[in-house]
Amino acid sequence: MIATAQPTPVSALADLVGLLPEVAESALREHFTGRRQPAYRVGQVLRWLYERGAAGFAEMSDLPQAERAALAEAFSFTAPEPAKISRSVDGTAKHLWRLADGELIESVLIPTPTRLTLCISSQAGCAMACTFCATGWAGYRRQLSAGEIVAQFRGARRWAQENGYDDITNIVFMGMGEPLMNPKAVFPTLAILNRGYKFGARRITISTVGVVPGIQRLAEMPEQYRLAVSLHAPNHELRQKLIPLEKKYDIDELLDALRRFDAAGGKRITFEYVMIDGVTDLPELADELARVVREFNAFVNLIPFNPIPGTEWKPSRRARLDLFVERLGRQGISAAVRESRGSDIAAACGQLRAEVTQGRAPVQMGSI
């Protein structure tokens, strides 16, 4: 059963970081007009917000001190505190952010020779309760605000610039939480990143376990945001044992929504598939998976299971991973094994938080 969403703490002041760009501009114009300040003050603040990465009004050094103080009285400015920063030998960097109410969320920077991908969270914890996911085991706390989601990008971008990384090239909503279960914050965040920070829609990917109304909404949008579907099983019987949401939106309904998304054109779908030894990696499941995804001409990411303390599950052996890829390939499906990154710093989603958070009772192999 999905937990009832708790409200995000609301400040009495509008959070400038979480406002749509046109709303932020309008609010700033009204603010400075009321203070009889020149119109160019609006542009100064927006540059600090979107381009120069100020962590707060105090850093906006080309504004008079009195105007910085007045902004702090008129608006809030979300900038979570880094509770822990871990950097892997492979360059992967994980931030554990502490929010204003003490909640902890994660973001991860993943460098490759050609890109720097940022993985961000959309909820504190997750209510989806997927049996193989560390975040799900840690439980659900609350929704994040748009400002708290955008602030992860702003904080990670600033840290990357200060620590010798290239510019962030891609953003994926694959951190803690189910993005499409937080539409009031996630959809404005997409617009803020796209229109405010000039981040191309094709460089932003939303990952979902199959929230059908959210997929349908994405299909109707003109922007070509990418979609990653956490399928993890090719049939209803197995999928409902791994993903409780399958009981609400079954695989047939999910596939219908994906057809609608695909028909919109130019919106790439990737399928995510967790590889658990003896559970999801059977050869016949590869054949069934091929039949399910073939119509979408999509790519399949095979994700070795990240062990969670208290479970008996193990990641698939390399030979089984290679066989799965080969078997999909023989049926015309492009697939690859997503190599683990940052394993020495618990960089998989939810793992860092799970180290200090008690999870649910372990699932026994026999139940699957």
Plain-language structure description:
The chain has 368 residues and is α/β, with parallel strands linked by helices. Helix 1 (21-34) packs across helix 2, helix 5 (146-162) packs across helix 6 (183-196) and helix 10 (283-293) runs parallel beside helix 11. Strand 3 and strand 4 (93-98) form a beta hairpin. It has 12 helices and 14 strands. The longest helix has 17 residues, at 146-162. The chain has helices spanning 21-34, 40-50, 65-74, 134-138, 146-162, 183-196, 212-220, 236-242, 251-263, 283-293, 318-330, 351-354; strands at residues 14-15, 75-76, 81-87, 93-98, 104-111, 116-119, 123-125, 140-143, 170-173, 204-208, 226-230, 269-275, 299-304, 334-337. The two termini are 18 Å apart. Residues 1-10 and 356-368 have low confidence and may be disordered. The strands form 3 sheets. A 10-stranded mixed β-sheet has the order 3-4-5-6-9-10-11-12-13-14, covered by helices on one side. A two-stranded parallel sheet has the order 1-2. Strands 7-8 form a two-stranded antiparallel sheet.
Low confidence ranges: 1-10, 356-368
Strand content: 15-25%
Structural class: alpha/beta
String of helices and strands: EHHHEEEEEEHEHEHEHEHHEHEHEH
CATH fold annotation of the largest domain: TIM Barrel
The shape is elongated
Per CATH, the superfamily of the largest domain is Aldolase class I
Tally of distinct domains: 2
Radius of gyration (CA) equals 21 Å
The appropriate CATH architecture of the largest domain is Alpha-Beta Barrel
Strands of the widest sheet, in order across it, are 3-4-5-6-9-10-11-12-13-14
CATH class descriptor name of the largest domain? Alpha Beta
Binding site for [4Fe-4S] cluster: 126, 130, 133
Active site: 106 (proton acceptor), 349 (s-methylcysteine intermediate)
Family: Belongs to the radical SAM superfamily. RlmN family.
Subcellular location: Cytoplasm
